[in-house]
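Q: I'm teaching a short session on how sequence maps to structure, and I want students to see two examples side by side rather than one. Could you give me a first protein with its sequence written out and its structure tokens following it? Keep the formatting plain so it prints cleanly on a handout.
A: Of course. Example one:
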Amino acid sequence: MILRTAGTNCDEETAYAWSLAGADPRRVHVRQLIDRPALLDEFAILTIPGGFSYGDDISAGKILATQMIHHLTDALADFVHAGKLVLGICNGFQVLVKAGLLPGGENGGTGVQQVTLAQNDSARFEDRWVHLRTSSKSSAFLPADVVLAMPIAHAEGKLVAADDAIRARILANGHAALVYCDSGGKPGPYPVNPNGSEADIAGLADATGRILGLMPHPERHVFSTQHPQWTRRRATQADGRVLFDHAVKSAKSI
């Protein structure tokens, strides 16, 4: 299920990426899901794609997150507890953190917001290619210890924890699923870290590894020729496909 609403603008590309990985994607408006939460039972993966849901009024992703808290908390809890997967891309990541699903507690989402995605340190919209290093442990979405290239496109992507204790728990418990790095996997200042995220975090996973949010756009790198240096990279695998392929394989084992 690819959840969309007013302002969502990456749902069709995301559906195409899932179909390339062998999934059977369906775009569903949030009002349809609120009217019939049991619709989630028909799916193994829920995706909240990128865009500017509700024009990012109040703050990025806040209104859709509030809808989910007030209307879909029980249905989402059942979905997650069934071992199914949840993915938030860019604006979808902003929704997941503001709904309290990420980074979550030791046993899943708490429903309490613990981090936010603030304005980039550059005070501008960042639209560029970045490198990402995955965590030392694999998850339902990502293999361990690989460097991937994906594009970003956001103005509010700086991950900030509510306090030092939450930041320490994120790092100690492996919630930092993706960090910004250079092509060799090493951290660095802007533009390697394009937004000033604490601990260079580009994506978070919950304790189970079945909920993932990330600021970069994997759906925009599903063919090797989409990378601006594709002739130099000579890569046969598009890095965004890694995420979708890995997730479909995980979902089939549910």
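Q: Perfect. Now a second example for contrast.
A: Example two:
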Amino acid sequence: MSETGRGAGAAWRGQGPARVLVRPQMGENIGAAARAMLNFGLDRMRLVDPRDGWPNPSAVAMASGAGRVLDHAQVFEGTDAAIAELNYVFATTARPRDLTKTVMTPERAMSLARAMMAEGQQVGILFGPERAGLENDDIVRANAIISVPVNPEFPSLNLAQCVLLTGYEWGRQGSDVAGEVDVIARGERATMEDVGRFVAHLQEKLAAKGFFWPEHKAASMRANLENLFRRAPLTETDVRTLHGVLRALAEWRQDRDGPGPKV
């Protein structure tokens, strides 16, 4: 991973969820997204593998006064690294998917984000590349989907428009926190990195037992399995418990005293 500005572990500089632009293609669109963010006091931009490299002069020119957002933008080689320490991630997409996830309007999503951040959680929003949007491999890593209620005959939004809409909803709601929110207490929600590590552990054990069969369905089986745990509101304790379950099952044995885990 490489990054500009401050490190991934630095304290958040501004208000609102991190905007994570996944494989953006044009510098102009990154600059326009930076302008949209700063319109609503947002300055936490993360870039995943920008096509034309970084820094990008076209982005700076298009930012037109929002250069400070670009100055602190962090650049990552992959989506996992960009969301590793976040507790909750939204994915923006207008297309129907095979994955089972909660779908929210920008209004509801930003209401939830405000409540979670008030509890000390770290939240991010994924935005896909301009040509085709987020791929399933990225969406499966999110907890929920943001879908804008647009004309179904022309649902396409450009990158900056999508960033602007979520920024508007964040700003419009001010400091109010929704009264009905299912939020895990501060400091308890597992990070995306923790969940990813458990999913990899689980898939490794299942693969060793031939679970992902037939082969032509293996990829979708893996995606659905990961999606199940990504959308669940897991705590750090939950993840440690699940790792312990896998270890216990791996060590299970039958002996004269009956079934039970080795100690």
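Q: What should students look for in example two?
A: Point them to this: The chain has two domains: 18-172, 192-260. Also worth mentioning: The chain is about 40% helix and 15% strand.
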